[in-house]
Amino acid sequence: MSILEADRTVTTTLAEPLTRRERVVLSELAEDVTLEEIATRLFVTRNTVKSQVRSVYRKIGVSTRAEAVAWAEAAGLR
Fold it and tell me: Name one GO molecular function term (predicted).
């Protein structure tokens, strides 16, 4: 599945589509790294990453990192 196809899938299944940055953060969550390490990779603060993670969780209807990663895999984003 191409990125464009994945975008369509995610957009059509969510009330609020994930932004490009939220998709990046979601993919980073699948790695064994801390929020601080994600922030460093993305050149933002840890609080920015925390806000983006909360937004992703709310949009996809999960409450844990493991659920978010499973959702991403099921949606074909990983």
Answer: DNA binding
Give the span between the Cα atoms of 41 and 57, in whole angstroms.
20
Q: Are 53 and 47 in contact (CB under 8 A)?
A: no
**CA separation, residue 54 to residues 29, 47, 49, 62, 64 (Å):** 12, 10, 9, 10, 10
pTM (predicted TM-score): 0.79
pLDDT tens-place string over residues 21-48: 999 999 999 999 999 999 999 999 999 9
Q: Among 5, 3, 19, which residue's Cα sits nearest to residue 60?
A: 19
26, 56 Cβ separation under 8 angstroms? yes
Q: Residue length, the chain?
A: 78
Q: Where are the extended beta strands (E) located within the chain?
A: none
Query: What φ, ψ does residue 28 adopt, rounded to 5°?
Result: -65, -30
